[in-house]
Input
Amino acid sequence: MIIGTVHSLQGAQCPIVLFSTVNSPEDHSLFMERDGKYNMLNVAISRAQHHFIVFGNMNIFHPEENTPVGNMAKWLFDDPSNEISNNFIYQQEVPLCTYHPTLRLSTTEEHIQVLHQAFEKARHRLLIVSPFISIHAIENDQLVPLIRHTVHRGVDVTVYTDSSLDYDTKTNQLLSRAEEGRNILIENAATLIEVKGIHNKSLAIDNHTLIEGSFNWLSANRHKEYSRHECSIVVSSVQADEYINNLIKELESREKTFQSLSKPTINLDIDQKYPGFFTKESFNDCTEEDICRIKQKVQELGIQKTVLPPYIHKQRETFPRAYEPWCTEEKEIICELMQKTNHLSIFIECLQRTGQAIQIQIEGKNN
Output
């Protein structure tokens, strides 16, 4: 709830706006139509998404006057049903609007379904906080192809886990099920981060959906006879963005003991498109040696298309491989670069083509 003057609502939107005129008939001027301008009333009225309710002395409104307040009066008095009686009692069973939509999960099946949907819906970032990790849960839910496909779409899949909970208390060794689970996440290009002292279980999809509760996303026993009763709340509202940002800050404030830094090699499909590859969170593991080596490989491909109109010859002065057909070897070089960076400038430097041509080839779109 926001309480304040009209100025405090600048740029905001609310389902319901309660507007108090704070004026009486004895007032010589009304602040809401100062200098005969509509600015104040425009801001106040346009903030309401569903309902704009006016409280005040109705004797200040004169619909016969061609003024800001007079014109609002025409609207207020247009229909007698606009008036809320003094005996108003809210009796509607269904709310007029849902401001903070939530969903409660209470079964293992519901949690698994939401986890699968998270991989499918994520466009930029999927954040999983699971204090424990088990290969059994990952295999049971068939998460490996989902992780692989999501990463291929250019989504940053990051898993946070606790640095000590999966260790044998007697031997101080990582449990085999946890070690296998961690390894398979890293092998399939998810970023794994171990931090000290976390026990929350969270799932954040981009900046619009947050699921938190007691369910261990990557370790809870999936078999009905052994599984525990776990519950989570799904928040998909304007406040989810704030909650997700707070979650990230909390995780980043914990002491980090491990992070899978480099992008492991994955088998990209040379003919598949990866929308959003260049607009997702920036990463670059390319060294100068990598760039020199790849440029040499591109140069060795040679130029096949030489009979060209003058305008292409002109463009090739800047981009030597402009309008050259994409061969299999060059597509394989693209896949190699995609493992290391999403900086378009490096692709342009290595492939000697225009940025637009490279984006079309990788993302399948023409900007």
In short: Residues 94-100 have pLDDT under 50 and may be disordered.
